[in-house]
């Protein structure tokens, strides 16, 4: 029996929803279903869904808003409606290339042992214009290689560019919950990469850079700092066994406390501290609980340098 992909789309924003759904309907493979879960949006989500008149699309409206209180809780609620072999957590503003589903199913057949299929990412702006391209990963990577690609910043992650084996995702407890879902899209794929990762040879997912994204919300900076800390602690707790082959050993070596510490300090600064006004620096630096006093001093100096060089 041919595997099937469940696109699960938690919907709140209306502006790009039609384009997002249209990209799924236009898939070259017909082995998919789409479940749109309206999270009590004030916008006419149902009208957009009904306009497609496609029996493979289901519409469900939550009794109460979940994502506004806990986005990952909403994600995990939504995946309970999936009936396919693989789950793709789609977004109400991102876009899939026509062969995304076809390629994911091809890789699922070729690498049946993997629980995770990954597509590299093309970033687009609000008008759909190309911004930049992600790296293309080898067709199969071990869990050590995959972690290395992410740690070294050569693989962009945004949850919608993955197909998760449904049984494995549910058995693992679903998406990992960090504050405001910051880092949940990083940790969950790493957790599901135990049996390796199959990767498409093209960028088949378009991530839309938009002011409507939660990641662009400056009112959530405190939650973002805490999520950065929790993700770093989660990464440090990964208990990978020593790999047997020399290739994986070279990737395994990069997962060390010094490297992870430098990464968390880098993210504190470039994802939060860099954007703060001077009067808030002290308050937010105190929240960077994995940073040393020296790290905090260096972040202040870097903040001053950035302001001077503007």
Radius of gyration: 20 Å
Shape-level CATH architecture of the largest domain: Alpha-Beta Complex
String of helices and strands: EHEHEHEEHEEEHEHHEHHHHH
Proportion of helical residues: 25-40%
Shape: globular
- The CATH homologous superfamily of the largest domain is termed Spore Coat Polysaccharide Biosynthesis Protein SpsA, Chain A
Question: How many E-type strands?
Answer: 10
Strand share of the residues? 15-25%
Q: How many distinct helices?
A: 12
Mean pLDDT: 93
Terminal Cα span: 59 Å
Number of domains: 2
Structural class: alpha/beta
CATH topology of the largest domain: Spore Coat Polysaccharide Biosynthesis Protein SpsA, Chain A
Contiguous runs where pLDDT drops below 50 for at least 5 residues:
none
CATH class designation of the largest domain: Alpha Beta
| Main β sheet profile | 10 strands, mixed
């Amino acid at each position: 029996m041919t595997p099937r992909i469940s696109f699960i789309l938690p919907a709140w924003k209306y502006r790009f929803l039609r384009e997002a759904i249209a990209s799924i309907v236009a898939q070259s493979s017909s082995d998919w279903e789409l479940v749109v879960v309206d999270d009590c949006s004030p916008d006419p989500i149902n009208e957009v869904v009904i306009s497609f008149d496609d029996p493979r699309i289901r519409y469900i409206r939550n009794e109460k808003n979940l994502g506004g209180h806990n986005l990952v809780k909403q994600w995990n609620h939504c995946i309970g409606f999936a009936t396919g072999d693989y789950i793709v957590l789609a977004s109400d503003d991102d876009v899939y290339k026509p062969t995304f589903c076809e390629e994911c199913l091809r890789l699922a057949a070729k690498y049946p042992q993997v629980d995770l299929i990954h597509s590299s990412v093309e970033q687009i702006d609000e008008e759909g214009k190309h911004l930049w391209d992600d790296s293309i990963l080898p067709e199969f990577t071990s869990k050590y290689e995959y972690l290395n690609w992410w740690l070294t910043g050569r693989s962009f992650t945004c949850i919608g560019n993955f197909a998760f084996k449904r049984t494995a995702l549910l058995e693992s407890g679903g998406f990992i919950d960090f504050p405001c879902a910051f880092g949940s899209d990083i940790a969950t794929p790493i957790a599901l990469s135990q049996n390796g990762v199959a990767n498409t040879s093209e960028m088949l997912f378009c991530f839309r850079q938009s002011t409507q994204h939660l990641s662009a919300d400056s009112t959530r900076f405190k939650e973002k700092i805490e999520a950065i800390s929790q993700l770093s602690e989660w990464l440090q707790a990964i208990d990978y066994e020593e790999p047997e082959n020399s290739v994986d050993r070279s990737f395994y070596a990069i997962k060390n406390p010094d490297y992870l510490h430098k990464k968390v300090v880098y993210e504190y600064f470039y994802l939060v501290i860099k954007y703060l006004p001077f009067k808030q620096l002290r308050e937010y630096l105190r929240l960077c609980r994995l940073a040393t006093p020296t790290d905090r001093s260096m972040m202040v100096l870097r903040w001053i340098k950035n302001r001077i060089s503007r």
